[in-house]
Every structure is written in C-alpha cells, then in structure tokens.
Design a protein that fits this description.
Layout (H helix, E strand, L loop, with lengths): L1 E10 L8 E8 L2 E5 L6 E6 L4 E4 L1 E3 L22 E5 L15 H12 L3 H7 L7 H10 L5 E3 L2 E2 H9 L1 H4 L6 H17 L3 E6 L18 H14 L3 E6 L4 H15 L3 E4 L9 H14 L4 E5 L4 E6 L11 H4 L6 H8 L2 H9 L4 H6 L15 E2 L14 H8 L3 H10 L6 E7 L7 H8 L3 E3 L16 H12 L8 H7 L2 H7 L15 E4 L5 E2 L3 E3 L8 E3 L2 E2 L1 E6 L2 E5 L2 E2 L14
Parallel strand pairs: 1-4, 1-5, 6-7, 7-8, 9-10, 10-11, 11-12, 12-13, 13-17
Antiparallel strand pairs: 1-2, 2-3, 5-18, 14-16, 15-16, 18-23, 19-22, 20-21, 23-24, 24-25
Length: 573
C-alpha cells in the first residue's frame, strides 16, 4: 500500500524522454515507482489525460525578504514551482550589521522594486551573519523549498561599511574578509555567490549599487573562495562595456577554479547583435575548458504599466507624478478632468524623474511602437498592430493621448506591456535561439521582485502554454524539452541532485497539469504584503495539484495548508 498513487497520467519525467502513460507511486517524501501499474495507494489521484511532471526548479528569484515571513511565496508556488533559489543579482539581507539594515532595504527597494515599508515591517532581522540567516529561514514552515546564495552587495557593505556604499576599491584585507565569509556561507549551505555590474541596478535615490565598479581582483578573489570550497556557482549581471575584458576574466575564473559561472543574457534594442557576440564568447570559453553558461529568459523582460502599478508612460511627467500617491478613485477623477488631461499631455518629460529610471526603462514615454495592449489572456509575443503607435496611426490620433485614454478608461485597472529586453525584432525569434543554444540555462523569472511593475514568476507556466502549445508567430518547442529545461537542467546546474526528475528514490515534487486548460490570467495588483505593500499577482488555471515532498500543497489553485517545504542547504539532502 503506497501513500499516494498518481494513476494513469501522461508522464513527462524531466529528462527530455518522450512522454508515456503510467502510474507514479509515492511513499513518504520519495518517489518509489514511475510507469507501469502501481499497487493501491492510501490516496489516489486520477490523472488520465493529465500531464505528470516534476515540480519546476526556479533558479532566479528575489524572495530573500519575503521568505522570512511568508510560507507560501506566491505567485511562484501557485505556478508549479516547488524549489526556488534566492540571492540573485548581488542583493539580499545577509550578512548585515544593524547599522546598515536601512541601506540594504533601500538597495533592495531600488534594484528589485520591493516596497521599502514592506521590508521594514516584515524583516525580523534575527540574524547578522549569512549562516544565521539560513538558520532563520530554516525555522519557518513553508509550502515549497527555498535555497539561497551569498549576495555581493550585502557582503561588501558588511566588510567595508560606508566605503562600500561610496563604491571605493576593496583592499587586500577586505578581499580576504570577503573570501572568508563566502567560504563560511558555502559551508553553511549557500548555493553560490552573485553580483551585478550594471547601470540598470540603482538604489531608490538613483545611486549605483555598492559592487557596480568592483575591481576584477575583488571578484576573482571571491570566486577563488568557491574554488577552495570545491562548491558553489558564481553568477552575475553585467553591462559588458568591454566585452572582451569581461569575458576574459569570467573565463579565467571559471576555468581556474573549476566552478560554474553564469551571467544573464538578453537582447538589447540599442545593439541587436550583442547577445550573439556574448553567446559566441561562451562557446569559446567552453572550448578552453571553462564551465561558462548564459542564463536566459523564456519571454520578454517586460514592464506592466498601469495606474495601479509602479510606472506608467506618464510617470516621468511632473504633474502626473505628483498624483501617484492618491487613492485610485480620486486619481481617476482627476485624470479624467479634460484640463488635467491636456496639461499632462502637453507637459514635457521631467529630466530628473527620467534620470532615476534604469537606462533600459527610459523609453516608456517615447517608444510607442514598443508599448502594447497586454490583453486577456496576456499576450507576451504581441503583434505590431497591438502597439500604441499602430492604434494611433489607425485612429489618426496622438500616441500619448491613445495611451492616456486607455489607461484612465474602464475601472482604472487596464495595463500596457513594454518589453524592455528580448523583443528587439518584434517577436521571440532571438529568445528561441537563446533557449535552444546548448550553452544556456533557463532562468530570470525574478519571482518576488519588481513587485509593482513586472510579474515574470509565471514564466514556467508560460513556457508550457506559449512555447509548447499556443505559439503562432514561429515554431513551437517540444513539450518534453520545455519541461526538461525547467526541471532536471536547472536542478542539476545548481546541485539540487535529489529533484528535477520523476525517478524512484528522488524527492516527490510533482505537478499534475490539465495541459488543455492551462491558462494565465492577466496580472493584477494586490495589497497583501506587510504594511499593505503592493505587488503584482497572476493566477493560472490548469494546475490540478502541486506536490512537495509527496504532499499536495496546492489543489486546483487552492492552498491546502500543507507545509512540507524547507530550506535546502547545498550539498545536503
């Protein structure tokens, strides 16, 4: 008698092998048999006509604060993610001295658009060191599993204090301290180290992050700590101002230490061939024995722009910006006043407000040809005729007026979609090339981050609906391949060795999916964070059940209340 039997499902086991029909038996938190006819179960789930897959292993999230108070971690958990990895892009909350907590909150608010008031209210700060942070995560019951990485900016501020905030160069003693603390974090169960070297990442005040201009010697020194430990993955985001120099030190570091190194790769509108050059660099590095990988997204990194979100195309006009803290009904009434409307449309962009935005977001008020109606269901590969520019041309109107009237129409919850990256050709052809490249890994969901302007934690569901079923603007991808990309490949890359596949002896993290009914709803703003903080939430239909460690944590989209999730420490089951 098994604890649970998933009966007669279409098994997509995460290895890329062709799907087949059979049973999956579970005892305790482990899978005991896959395929064929299993014996009876104390509970059985009829899965005929349904997909049975491993749970998604999402390697790029920012739940670093939220995971200390929230046991559910939606929307990632409601989208079938059963393991998430935090501490990306060099931002996080450990290690942290008491006198620098406010700076780390401001940093996370600026870089990842997580409300500062929410973090101030929600963080208990019952830790200082990174191992103590892991212990704090370990104490909270949770629905899904979490893992963490050492964030460079927090580490740098911990070691260097105000000198790090002023972006001064690290001394040899500073680097030695950062090496020691990184080894300590790896020994405690960190999955790696991350940093960022990009002008896209700024504090709430518009300041660049502490590690933006760190010398290569500092980064190599920290990377050598991973080599000394024989564990951990090194990750970063870079602007690649000098592509050859950046790729050279990355190649040298990963080859000399033997540790995997990944960097984020997307296309850029100002340089359409950039992603190809960088990916060629990854192939060259691998030919030299360096385990270098590009982490890519499965859809555009796009801003959701609306009156309730953190940005609109008019947020960088002073008159509009001055009303953004008003309650929505009051603001709608004001915005619908013809005189106010005309004043905002006539007003030039504020150079100060524009300068605070990350560089790639500054075109939200000028590139009307890249601003689209999102729709229901949301369309993440929109045709040119859905753009504000095209609508304006058809109607013989000013694009700004079209966007304004659309946003203030209805009940004020309408949204527009602005692809910041991964949409330079007006379709997802470059994304498909990146996805299919052997030197890439799927990530960049950013779950838990960009709360008021991006909702890409739903990317795992999108991978199935768009790429494996619905795409009409280009080739679709095999379902088995799509599942493999976000299960065994992501799990294997970071060393989550007991999950990511449906096989006897592995952890029973499982999704049961009605593939035909799988459907994303439009993102919407909710105010369910501490202190009433807002975030984008996005529901999905079609997940019959999500199991973690053999226990259903969601059934038909509803939280069961089960809390089998835990902190996962690298190198330990």
């Amino acid at each position: 008698m098994h604890d649970l039997v998933i009966r007669a499902g279409t098994i997509v086991d995460g290895t890329g092998s062709p799907a087949y029909t059979g049973d999956v038996a579970i005892d305790g938190d482990r899978i005991t048999s896959v395929g064929g006819k299993a014996g009876p179960g104390r509970r059985e789930i009829a899965a005929s006509g349904l997909l049975v897959t491993p749970g998604w292993v999402d390697i790029h999230t920012h739940y670093d604060g939220q995971a200390t108070w929230d046991p559910v971690l939606a929307p990632s958990s409601i989208q079938g993610s059963t393991t998430i990895l935090m501490g990306n892009c060099g931002v996080g909350f450990a290690p942290a001295r008491p006198q620098h907590r406010a700076e780390l909150i401001e940093l996370m608010e600026g870089v990842e658009d997580i409300p500062g008031i929410t973090l101030t209210e929600g963080l208990a700060w019952d830790w200082e060191t990174f191992p103590e942070y892991l212990d704090a995560l370990d104490r909270l019951p949770r629905a899904i599993d979490v893992g963490a990485q050492m964030p460079h900016h927090a580490l740098r501020v911990y070691v260097m204090g105000e000198r790090a905030i002023r972006r001064e160069a690290a001394s040899a003693m500073d680097i030695a301290d950062m090496q020691r603390l990184t080894r300590e974090a790896i020994a405690a169960g960190a999955f790696g180290f991350t940093t960022s070297r990009t002008d896209q990442h700024k504090t709430r005040k518009g300041e660049l992050v502490p590690g933006r201009y760190s010398e290569v010697e500092e980064l190599v020194g920290i990377g050598e700590a991973l080599g000394d430990a024989g564990a951990g993955v090194f990750g970063l985001i870079s602007d690649f101002e000098d592509e050859a120099a950046e790729l050279a030190w990355m190649t040298r570091l990963s080859r000399d230490t033997g540790r995997p190194l990944w960097f984020l790769l997307t296309d850029r509108a100002y340089d359409p061939e950039r992603w190809r050059r960088l990916l060629d660099g990854v192939h060259r590095a691998r030919s030299q024995g360096a385990p270098l990988t590009a982490q890519v997204a499965g859809r555009p990194v796009g801003l959701i722009l609306g009156l309730e979100t953190s940005l609109t195309p008019f947020s960088i006009r002073a008159a509009f910006h001055a009303m953004e803290d008003m309650p929505l009904p009051e603001r709608l009434a004001r915005l619908r006043d013809p005189a106010v409307r005309q004043a905002i449309l006539d007003e030039p962009v504020s150079e100060h407000l524009l300068s605070i935005l990350p560089p790639l977001s500054r075109q939200i008020a000028t590139r009307w040809d890249r601003l689209y109606l999102l729709g229901d269901p949301p369309n993440y590969e929109p045709e040119a005729e859905r753009s504000i520019a095209a609508i304006a041309a058809r109607e013989g109107r000013d694009p700004a007026a079209v966007a304004y009237d659309y946003l203030v129409g209805g009940d004020g919850t309408r949204t527009l979609f602005f692809p910041v990256t991964n949409y330079v050709t007006g379709d997802l052809a470059p994304v498909q090339s990146m996805l299919e490249d052997s030197c890439t890994i799927l990530g960049l969901s950013d779950g838990g981050a960009h709360c008021g302007v991006i909702c890409d934690a739903t990317a795992p569901s999108f991978m199935l609906t768009h790429w494996a079923r619905d795409r009409v603007r280009g080739p679709r991808l095999p379902l088995e391949w799509v599942v493999k990309r976000q299960t065994s490949e992501t799990a294997g890359f970071f060393g989550f060795d007991d999950r990511g596949r449906l096989a006897p002896g592995l952890k029973a993290d499982v999704n049961i999916i009605d593939f035909d009914r799988l459907r994303l709803h439009p993102p919407r703003i909710v105010h369910d964070l501490p202190a009433g903080g807002k975030r984008l939430m996005q529901n999905v239909d079609g997940y019959v059940a999500t199991l973690v460690a053999g226990q259903p944590v969601f059934e038909h989209g509803e939280d069961t209340g089960a809390r089998p999730g835990r902190l996962v420490r690298a190198g330990r089951r």
